[in-house]
Amino acid sequence: MFLQPTLLFAALVASIEAASWIVPGAVWNDVNGKKIDAHGGNIVQRGDTFYWVGQAASQDVIPVMYSSTDLLNWTPLGTQNSLKWLWRPKIAKPNGKFWIYGQLDRSIQSLVSDQMVGGYRLNGAAVRIPPNSYSYSDTGMFLDSDSTWYILTSADHNIVQINKLNSDGSVGARASQLADGALEAPGMLKVGGTYYLIVSGKTGWRSNPNKVYTSSSINGPWTGGADIAPPAEKTYNSQNTFELTIKGSQKTTYIYMGDSWDSKGGPSSNHVWLPIKVDEARKSLVLEYHAMWKVDTRTGVVSWPAAGKRYQARHAESTGSTEIVRRESAVGKHAVRGISESGQAIFRNVTGGGRKQWVSFHYTVNDQEAGEAHVTVNSDALPTNISSLNCRAGFHKTVPIELHLEKGDENVIRFGATGSKDFEATIDGIEVFDDEEEL
Ligand SMILES: *[C@@H]1O[C@H](CO)[C@@H](O)[C@H](O)[C@H]1NC(C)=O
Ligand SMILES: *[C@@H]1O[C@H](CO)[C@@H](O)[C@H](O)[C@H]1NC(C)=O
Questions:
Q1: Which residues form the signal peptide (predicted)?
Q2: How far is the CA of 325 from the centre of ligand 1 (A)?
């Protein structure tokens, strides 16, 4: 059949936009090439399909949904209700109907529908949390292995409280509480007979070291308060929203879903998703950091890319005040240091596929507060700050971003930095991933 040029073009764009990896902190586009805007949400699996609900920062915090079968490529399913300022919406299914619970002006507002996608209508007025009529912040959701749904809240804005969802969708009895300072953003997973409750401290939109508490019963008591990542990483600059369990044919994989908020929880916020490593004997868990990774949703097996094609600092052109120095820790044993407004590292003859590709920048900065690194590809008129493409920029030594490379062996990638007087970046090299076989 003859394809109209516009359809053909759409088909090409769709294949170009296919995502191959989950990249914590990086801008994540949907199948139409538009940035995914679903925060504070959760994911529910039905058959082979995952449904992701979240608040749309660019649309006054209304609930939106996306779907995917591989957790990589997400199709937007649109607005689920036009209610504004419904924070941290969560899907639940305590009965034959479908529900979204979110925080509306410090109370729980529920929406109900007869189907998973669309048709959500208000279910009465917003309610306070029983039994003490607490107001709250930060909705969380957990489905127990006996099919009971629990809504998790920061009751009275500090105490994590777990309430059962009744089969009529109403908020039911309190199962337990965790009062251990000011906590919010609760999420939970269950491994063996142990419940792991992940919570955030309260630091506004700034990230903090999220913690884990455990119990052998949903009714508590909760013990712990252990870090889920090295504290200095501040949960890799994110805040918990939900824990997703993938029961694969080979392995069960638990996924931490976090929001990497911008300074006001706005549209430039990103996502940090990481596999969770659980030690059942010690009843402890930690996030397993990967700059790029994915999970096979059928087998549950987590993988990450083989090394891409590397372009080492040693072979880069270093301009201005930069110099190439020996660095034992670098893959190529060398680094270009002194990168600032007065000098760059230029990688020439980079092979590209004529499309967007992940390019990892292996670099460090001497002061995260004092400036940032940027990149200029081929004939770009202006450099792009790496932080606008991946908010791990400057905070991790491997930072993948998606760049459009021309087809052939003559791409030029300039790595520079802007900042205050003594700010400088040091780069070991770049790594270009060719994911064509993944499409
Ligand atoms: C890039 O490739 C061209 C053509 O093959 C070659 O002349 C040039 O020396 C190469 N430059 C670098 C920096 O490798
Ligand atoms: C890029 O980063 C520099 C240093 O932080 C900043 O001064 C500049 O405004 C940023 N540029 C853009 C386009 O955001």
A1: 1-18
A2: 22
